[in-house]
Amino acid sequence: MTLKTLGIALDVLSKFTKQHITWGLRELAKEMDMNHTVLYRILKTYESKGFLVQDNVTKKYELGSKMLDLLSAVQQKVNLSDFVVPIMKSLSNETNESVFLTWRDGFAGTTVEISESPQQIKFAVSIGYQTPLYVGASCKVIMAFLLPAEQKEIINNGTNKFTDRTLVEKEEILSSLEEIKQQGWCYSEGEFSEDVFGIGVPIFGKDEKILGSLTIAGPIYRITPDKKSLFLDRLLKGKTEIEQSIQLLGVDDVYK
């Protein structure tokens, strides 16, 4: 088999995705602009090795058990952080601000990964640092997607005022959380640390379960409306990439 043939065969396999899990011969040949005979031989080879199976009724192909074996091997060898850290470093380099991943841990959010800003003056936090879920962009964007009963339980457990901008009254917090949930992201200024801004987006796992958040943070004096919009766009892109990694690995609570 030549490298060109191998490349074509791998391109065929890559067409079987979550969005398009089955393909008929003619349908796939048209999609890839391939000769039917060549594609048929590739599909049959994959089928004989267990990478694809053909439905006896529809005659369409889908991924076979051999692919599950390969996925299992990947899951055992690769950690989620292997995917997440490069995404965060790229995001930090693009924005020149610190980027950190926060995971829910009971009533708190725990910093599990961080890529610090290359600038001298920056927001810095240590891995393992915990913050109450009712304060700051990185935590409030997690709390906003919890069940109402869980939100009230967290608030009833007690709230502390870290700065003059920290919301501690139950109704104020719940109203803020509803707004965050509606817009799908959270922006805060000086709620947990004076003179620090944060923009956070939620990270979901299987069945839309809220797991944590991805956040950009830095000194307030550096944030502008244009930067805020740019940072949010970059965060949403990073969020999508991380959630795709979670789905690929088939894992959720990897940071527990």
**Shape type:** elongated
Which range does the strand content fall in?
15-25%
Could you state the order of secondary-structure elements as H and E? HHHEEHHEEEHHHEEEH
The end-to-end distance, rounded to whole angstroms, is: 45 Å
Q: What's the total count of β strands? A: 8
CATH architecture annotation of the largest domain:
2-Layer Sandwich
Give the neighbour order of strands across the main sheet: 5-4-3-8-7-6
Radius of gyration: 23 Å
Number of domains: 2
Averaging pLDDT over every residue, what do you get? 90
Largest sheet: 6 strands, antiparallel
Task: Note poorly predicted spans.
Answer: none
Q: Supply the CATH superfamily name of the largest domain.
A: GAF domain
The first-level CATH class name of the largest domain: Alpha Beta
Structural class by secondary-structure content: alpha+beta
Helix content: 40-55%
Structure annotation, total helices: 9
Q: What's the CATH topology label of the largest domain?
A: Beta-Lactamase
Domain IclR-ED: 66-248
Organism: Lentibacillus populi
InterPro entries: GAF-like_dom_sf, HTH_MetabolicPath_Reg, Tscrpt_reg_IclR_C, Tscrpt_reg_IclR_N, WH-like_DNA-bd_sf, WH_DNA-bd_sf
GO biological process, one term: negative regulation of DNA-templated transcription
